[in-house]
Design brief:
Blueprint (H helix, E strand, L loop, with lengths): L1 H7 L1 H25 L8 E9 L6 H11 L9 E7 L2 E4 L5 E3 L15 E5 L3 E9 L8 E4 L3 E2 L5
Parallel strand pairs: 1-2
Antiparallel strand pairs: 1-6, 3-4, 3-5, 6-7, 6-8
Helix pairs in contact: 2-3
């Protein structure tokens, strides 16, 4: 860890953690808007669609969520990440292709006239919780995607 900190600087590390901590807090707020306080302890998972080009480090976000969730009555909740690849549509040949992070060039015709189509997502997809009315303790899902209003 010391070598890592020397390479990128301690300030950058703390800024990145604060960024993901803020996003984790936004995720908690979205859940709080949809699930009444007395039911939050039954939440088992929150699924987040996360784009490769979103500027968010998934591992740090999951860690940050794990720190905040118990303080908000969601100790049994996990944050599950659906990774979305970076794709772009070429304005020259019209093909949509996977892009290499940082290289915005069509892999088919080598044009740089590429528009990003996927990979910037940061979206709560669903909230799963134990269904108290189900004898078997089944899981119920609340599916209502909402963009997180976070400028990255």
């Amino acid at each position: 860890m010391a070598c890592f900190l020397q390479d990128i600087g301690e300030n950058h590390v703390s800024e990145k953690v604060m960024h993901e901590l803020s996003i984790a807090q936004n995720i908690i707020e979205i859940v709080e808007e949809r699930i009444p306080a007395h039911k939050r302890s039954r939440i088992t998972a929150i699924v987040l669609r996360l784009g490769e080009f979103s500027g968010v480090v998934a591992e740090t976000l999951v860690f940050s969520f794990g720190v905040i969730a118990p303080q908000k009555g969601m100790s049994g909740a996990s944050l599950e990440i659906e990774n979305v690849p970076l794709t772009g549509e070429c304005g020259t040949c019209g093909k949509t292709s996977l892009l290499t992070y940082g290289v915005f060039e069509c892999p088919v015709c080598r044009s740089r006239d590429v528009v990003i189509r996927t990979g910037q997502e940061l979206q709560v997809v669903s909230i799963s919780m134990i269904d108290a009315g189900d004898e078997s303790g089944g899981i119920a899902a609340v599916n209502s995607p909402e963009q997180i209003q976070e400028t990255l």
